[in-house]
Amino acid sequence: MRRFSEDFLWGGATAANQYEGGYLSGGKGLSTADVFKGGDQQTPRYVTYQLPNGELGKATEEEAVPEGAVGYIDVDAYYPSHVATDFYTHWKEDVALFAEMGFKCFRFLFNWTRICPKGTDEVNE
What we know:
The protein is an alpha+beta fold. It has one domain (about 10-115). About 15% of the residues lie in helices and about 15% in strands. Strands 2, 3, 4 and 5 form a four-stranded antiparallel sheet that branches. A two-stranded parallel sheet has the order 1-6. β3 and β4 form a beta hairpin. The termini are far apart. The relative contact order is 0.27.
């Protein structure tokens, strides 16, 4: 029977849109995942947007978002990334659980809109 070496690094990894939460906390701007509405077996997922003239719209994964459109949050819609598993709020407890499980390393992703909320050179410290 083969065994892992003693210096093997057990660990885990997460993806921002599935895990991060805190979608507008700490100065974060909207990301594409933040305007991607949850779907189900009858209703496909889609992004919600607003055109410069104020008109609201939606586009499925197969459709293009019109030029000049910006992300828009429909307060009556469900967006899975807004809360996710809320690592943003619970990171200390989560990291403690990883340590309890014996993780030696942890790779996490966060949304770039935490660093550049408007997608420009303006940095959110």
